[in-house]
Specification:
This is DNA-binding domain-containing protein. This protein has eleven helices and five strands, in the order αααααααββαββαααβ. It is α+β, with helices and mostly antiparallel strands. β3 and β4 form a beta hairpin. The chain is elongated and about 85 Å long.
Length: 261
Amino acid sequence: MSDFARQQSEFQHAILSGDDGILTEILDSPKETRATLFGVYRHAYGSRLVEAMRNDHELLHRFLGGEMFDEMGHAYVKARPSEHPNLRWFSQGLPDFLKATAPYSNHPVLADLAALEKALNDAFDAREGALLALEAMSGFAPEVWNDLVFQPHPSAARVDLSTNAAAVWMALKNDETPPEAETLAEPARLLIWRQDTTPMFRELPTEEAMMWDEASDGVPFGVLCEMLATYDDPDNAAARGAGYLHGWITAGLLMAASVRE
C-alpha cells in the first residue's frame, strides 16, 4: 500500500471510529489547530448520515422533533458506523438500536415507528414481480386445491408492533396530532406491501396473520384450512381461507400459485 493510500485508509478509520491518532499526520493551519480542522470533517460526515436518516424516517423525525432526532441520529452513527457505500442501507439497523439502547428503549413506540418506516421503505425498493390474477385460479381443478402453495410478492412483509405506532404513523402522515403512545394488549400484526408504486400496510386479524405467515412458508391450502378450523367455526374454515386468499390476490400480494409436488 502506498503512503497516500495508507493515509486515506487511516483518515477514514479515524472518522468512523473516533480515533484521533491520525492527527499526528495532519498539519495545523495558520488559523486553526489540526484537531479543529479534522473535527469539521468528522462532524460533516456524521451530519450527512443523520440527514440520510431523516429522509428514510421522515415521520419518526416529525414525532421526535428536529433536535431530539438529530441527537438520536448521532448516537446511532457513533454506535453503528456505516459499512455500506449506499446511504439507503445505513439506517436498516435503527429499529434494533432504538429497541436496545437507552433512553430510546424506554419508549417502545420509537422502535415500532422506525420498524414500520423501514418496512415501507423496503417495500418501495423491492424488486418487481409478476402478479397472480384471479382468472389464473380457475385453471386449477377442485381436487388439487388442497395442494396449492403460494408465492408472496417480493415487496410483501409482515411486522408485529407492540405499540399503537401504526395509529401514530397514520396521524403524522395526515398532519394530525398523533395519539398518546401506548403499549397494546396484543401485538398489531401488520402486512406491508407495494401496490403499483405505493407502499401500503394494513392490520391483520390474528387468524389471517397466521394463515399469511404459514402460506408464506409454503404450507399448502388444505393444511391452512385445517389450521383455520382450530380458530373458529370449523365448518366455515375453507370459506374463510378462500376469502383471505381472494383478498391477497386482488391486493397484489401474491406472485404465483402452484400445485405442491
